Amino acid sequence: MSEKIEMQNLTKEFKRKNENVSAVLNIILIILIVLLITGCNNLGGNVKNVKTNHIQSNIYSKEDIDNAIDIITKEFEKDWTGCTLKEIYYSGDDNSLAHQDWADRNSADEVIVLLSTFDVDSSGGDGSLNPNSTYEDWMWILVRNKGEKWIHVDHGY
Known about the structure:
43% of the residues lie in helices and 25% in strands. The protein has 157 residues and is an alpha+beta fold.
C-alpha cells in the first residue's frame, strides 16, 4: 500500500514539474515572438532600394568598386539602425587620389572613396545623426593592399 502511495506522489510530482517546464517554455516562446515582431524590424539600416551609379575609373575595375560598395552596403544594413541608404557610388579617381594619405596612415597601398545619400528617421539613427534629415555626399573611405579586400576606415564629411 505504501508503494502505491509513493508511486502516486511521484506521479503528481512529475506532473507538477512537467507543468512548470511547459510554462517556462511557453514564456520563452512568447518573449521570442515579441522580440521578432518588434525588435528585428528596427535592427540595422534599410538598403532595399539603394541606387548605385557606375563611375568610370582608370584606377579601379568595376569589380573593385562593386566590392567596396558591397562592404559599405552590408555594414549599413547591419549597423545603421533608423537610416535608409538611398544612393552610393564611387566618387571618382581625383577624389580617391586626393585621399591617398588615408592609405598611408593605415599602412595600405590603395584608397577608395565612395559617396552616398541616406535618410535618417525620427530616431536619429544611433543618436549622433540629425533626426528626420537627409545626408548627401557622405564619404566612406576604404583602404587595402593590392589584391586584398577593402577595409572601411572612416566615414563622414
